[in-house]
Amino acid sequence: MIQELGERLQYSFQIGYSYTRRDIYRVIGIPEDTHGGVWDTGYARHENDWFIFCNIATPGTTGHDYANQWIGDKLEWYGKTNSQLRHQSIQSILSLETNTYIFWREDNKKPFTFAGIGSVKGFEDTTPVKFIWTFEAGIFPDEINLTSVLHEGAVCQVSVNSFERNPLARQICLEHYGISCCVCGFNFGRVFGKLGEGFIHVHHLRQLSEISKEYIVDPVKDLRPVCPNCHAIIHRSSVPLSIQEIKALVEETSSDAT
Fold first, then answer.
1. CB of 205 within 8 A of CB of 173?
2. Is a pLDDT exceeding 50 seen at residue 164?
3. Can you say how many angstroms the Cα of residue 156 is from the centroid of all Cα atoms in its chain?
């Protein structure tokens, strides 16, 4: 999965990280003072790639307000007001010859979060045209799935359903703990450079079998960043091992080796 994602990523955006438009201009190599025209709208093309700037539950800076929303790990997104499936720009986005980099935010005064390179899961020939996007990411089966987030001061509560997910949980968890494995300390960026930056699994401390209905999850208390190796060992037994048990195993084998 890392190799597949690396082969497709031309630009060094990190999934779950925040970027202003000017940050994006710098990464893709266009003048930082770029403004107006297509770059102030919901999507623009640069060379052979498309860049979508998606506002969710908030109007864009141009005042347009669309029904964009996360549905589990899928993004329901609408094109510009009069966009139609037959339009050349929409056909270009649909083609397999371009990458579509998707950025989203819930506050039009804040930077965008990079969701990843989108793959079209479905579309409807409406006006505006409607797309369903999915994203490539190394997500382990027990990574938690969010449906909504409520912010109240410094308190963040997330209402979730076990069969859906949303990048918000991952983002909140990694902002708190960082992107190194909380068991062994492995950091993909330090080992693999830019290709590995931002890559890590997010482990849910509660078993999926315990999650049979919507409940409130705290991404800081209930989620932990773990590398794929530690994550696989956690789930190697029928009853997943705890973070503490895996840490003890790592420490024990490390001491035996010395």
1. no
2. no
3. 18
Q: What token pair was written down for 174?
A: 């990694």
> Who's near 143: CB < 8 A, 6+ residues apart?
165, 169, 170, 201, 202, 203, 204
Give the CA-trace dihedral at 175, 112, 84, 137, to 10 degrees: -30
pLDDT for 163 beyond 50: no
83 versus 97: the higher-pLDDT residue is: 83
Verdict on whether the full-model pTM lies above 0.70: no
The predicted structure's pLDDT at residue 107:
87
* Pairwise CA distance, residues 120 & 44, whole Å: 17
Q: What Å distances lie between residue 58 and 3, 62, 230, CA to CA?
A: 35, 11, 39
In terms of DSSP bridges, do strands 69-71 and 43-46 run parallel, antiparallel, or are they unpaired? unpaired
Alpha-carbon distance 75 to 102, whole Å? 10
CA pair distance 134, 187, nearest whole angstrom:
26
Torsion from C-alpha of 155, 159, 162, 165, nearest 10 degrees: -80
C-alpha Rg value of the chain to the nearest Å: 20
Length of the chain counted residue by residue? 258
pLDDT band with cut points at 50, 70 and 90 for residue 94: confident
> Do the Cβ atoms of 118 and 133 come closer than 8 Å?
yes
Burial of residue 54, with CB atoms counted within 10 A of its CB: 0-12 exposed, 13-18 middle, 19 or more buried: buried
User: pLDDT by residue (tens digit) across 195-222?
Assistant: 888 888 888 887 655 655 555 667 888 8
What is the distance between the alpha carbons of residues 213 and 160, in angstroms, rounded to a whole number? 8
pLDDT at 50: 92
CA distance 12 to 192: 13
